[in-house]
Every structure is written in structure tokens, then in C-alpha cells.
Give the backbone structure.
Amino acid sequence: MASEDEYTAAPFLPEDPEKATLTALRRAAVGCRGCPLHRDATQTVFGAGKATAHVMLVGEQPGDQEDRQGKPFVGPAGKLLDRALAEAGIDLDDTYVTNAVKHFKFTQAEPKKRRIHKSPSLREMTACAPWLAAELALVEPELIVVLGATAGKALLGSSFKVTQVRGTVLEEEIHGRPERLVPTVHPSSVLRADDREAAFQGLVSDLKVAARVLT
């Protein structure tokens, strides 16, 4: 089995991930040691939702609350995303949510101090890519909503800039599959915005583009 220094999750996936279930993938991901991020994280945070979902939302990585609870998008950014999806007319029950990286990467000044999010490196995103590829193969979404720059780089390459393509429909080959994608900002950026309401409405506007693709 590969060591974390090889930076690949591939050996930790089921033998034939495309024939596995999401439940089997989730169980296998618990033991992933494909990069050093597992050392400090509380647990693996795998995707959540139905295998029949028409929309897959891909974010960057789990945050503090997600790391503690073991579920994606359960913190403040996740709650804001749920509200934006509802306002855009996208059924939450028809979504599958996941992240490009499955472990929380953070800095911490000292034990018991607040854990500060730190963006994953390209190497860490590449290491985790087999999990995302397996999720895509099983869910086969009609549309991928790309949440933020890091998720965009993980899916579309290091030159991706969310500000240039947000709210547009892209058609690209992702992990060997033709996909339609709508990029937008990560909901956490809305929480950090000076004008939060304007930023929120911008997110909703992008998600309405995604909703139109689905109709």
C-alpha cells in the first residue's frame, strides 16, 4: 500500500471504484492515508447526498465544523449555501455535496486555540482526486456546480479563475467524462464580504444559471 509521501489516494479506494457504492467509497475513505493531511484532521469528511442526484456541488475542503461532525457543508457556509440553493430554485434533495479535498487543513497557534483554515496545495488536491473521480463516476450528475477557486483548480486546472467564468456554463472533460459545469464563488467568501447581501445575491444569480441548465 502507498505511503502518504507518495501523495495519492488511489491505493485506498475499493478495487473497482466505479462498481462500488457511495457507502463503500465512504467506508474506504475513512482509512485514507494518501497524503499527510489525515494526521491533524479529526476524520475524513466524504461527500453526502443521493447517488441519483442531478447536481453535484464541489467545494474546497471541509472546515472546522465539518471536520468535527464528519459531514460536508454543515457549518455557517453550508447553511448559507442551502439558503442560496433554495432561493435559486434548486431542490436540496436533488444535490450531492462534496469537496475536492476530504481532510481539513488548518493552522493553529497553540492547542485549544481556534483552528484557522489553510488552502490545500495542488499536490494535496491531486492526491485526493481519485475520490472525486469515483464520486463523479457513481453519481453521474447532470451538472457540476464549482464552488470557488480551489475546487475549480482541482477540476479544471491551475489556470482556473472563478472571477472570469462565474455564472457561465462550461463543457469540459473531467476525469475522462464529458461534464457541464457552472462555477461560482465559495459561500464562505460571501460570509467574508464587506457587502454580504450583494455577495449573496451574486451567488444566487450564479445558481439560477445552474437551475436553468437543469430545466
Remarks:
- The CA atoms of residues 37 and 153 lie 19 Å apart.
- The chain has a mean pLDDT of 96.
